[in-house]
Design a protein that fits this description.
Number of domains: 2
Structural class: alpha/beta
Shape: globular
Strand order of the largest sheet: 3-4-5-2-6-7-1-9-8
Order of helices and strands: HEHEHHEEEHEHEHHEEHHHEEEEHEH
CATH architecture of the largest domain: 3-Layer(aba) Sandwich
């Protein structure tokens, strides 16, 4: 296959050189990880490489699952992970020249007082969980604290902020980080309209949903994709579709003043329309009766049964998929 059909991150970084956070979500296999690690290697950037959980990081330390394996083959380098009980280090060549560190986000909050002034790039690989994987509690806060720990106060002294690249396959839009950023709704609209790029200059965030049409055309000729046409796997792996997510009932409300707050469970606030039978769940805070997860039974008795009926009647709407997924879990639907 020709090299020009694969994803190349360099044009993205060059076009949006003032951006800090680069979010890349695509089909499987066009080269998101390869391109990022090639860029880091060729530019001699010190890397902080992140995976979601420790077992994922452990596999990176093996020769078979080393994410630099193809880079080493193509560039003639010898970049590899060395894993200790509590840390992971990335070395280049046999002289053990350290060029990066590895970490799992799920346990990063245990690393107190970390300092990486030499770090140039953070790469959070496969940052969206698969539907079969467990959530990381407080994942968004851990991620933001991680970035703060690594970036520190370097911008106070005229130094550039650390670039943060986040890449994933389109398996699940239910990402706490994307939801906390308020990007889930925008990504849903980008998918619906075929928009590949969205830049938030005031926030320094770029969202890239590359279509990679040439790669797709070549890939669909292969044995697996001929065999899996019409399946959910085909749609998310080849067409970059969030096929494991149900977007029914998701919409953006412009005038929340038309609603009054009914109740809240954790950070999900449920509003009732003042003139018609309609309910809306979002993260807009308001003074109301509040329930925690431990008081879910009381929530269900007082509001949950009614809200579940409204959901099945098509009267309950949600600000984004993450909110929908969490509330429907509470409602057991």
């Amino acid at each position: 296959m020709k090299n020009n059909v694969f994803y190349d991150i360099r044009p993205l970084l060059e076009r949006y050189e003032k951006a800090t956070f680069f979010i890349i979500i695509s089909s499987r296999g066009p080269g998101k990880t390869y391109s990022t690690l090639k860029y880091v290697t060729e530019e001699n950037k010190f890397l902080a490489y992140f995976r979601r959980r420790e077992d994922e990081l452990d596999r990176c330390a093996s020769e078979r699952f080393n994410p630099f394996k193809d880079i080493n083959k193509d560039l003639g380098t010898d970049i590899h992970f060395k894993r200790t009980k509590s840390d992971a280090f990335i070395y280049r060549d046999k002289i053990d020249n350290m060029v990066g560190v590895g970490a799992a986000l799920s346990t990063f909050e245990n690393a107190r007082g970390i300092s990486l002034p030499e770090c140039d790039v953070i790469f959070y690989d496969e940052f969206i969980r698969k539907p079969s994987q467990l959530r990381i509690k407080g994942e968004a806060d851990i991620f933001f604290n991680m970035y703060e720990s690594i970036n520190r106060n370097r911008e106070f002294f005229g130094k550039p902020a650390v670039k943060c690249i986040m890449a994933s396959n389109a398996v699940n839009i239910d990402s706490e980080i994307l939801s906390e950023w308020g990007l889930v709704y925008d990504i849903e609209r980008m998918k619906a309209t075929g928009q590949e790029m969205k830049y938030y200059p005031e926030r320094g965030i770029v969202v890239n949903l590359p279509i990679c049409a040439e790669f797709r055309a070549e890939k669909e000729k292969t044995a697996l994709y001929r065999a899996t046409q019409g399946t959910k796997y085909y749609e998310h792996a080849l067409d970059n579709e969030f096929t494991y997510n149900d977007f029914y009932g998701i919409k953006r409300i412009k005038a929340i003043s038309e609603y009054s707050c009914l109740c809240a469970i954790e950070d999900i606030y449920v509003y009732r329309h003042k003139s018609r039978r309609e309910f809306y769940a979002c993260n807009i805070r308001s003074d109301t009766v509040h329930f925690e997860k431990r008081s879910q039974i009381q929530f269900m008795r007082r509001y949950g049964i009614m809200l579940r009926e409204e959901y099945f009647s098509g009267n309950l709407y949600f600000s984004d998929y993450h909110t929908k997924n969490r509330l429907t879990e509470f409602l057991k639907v």
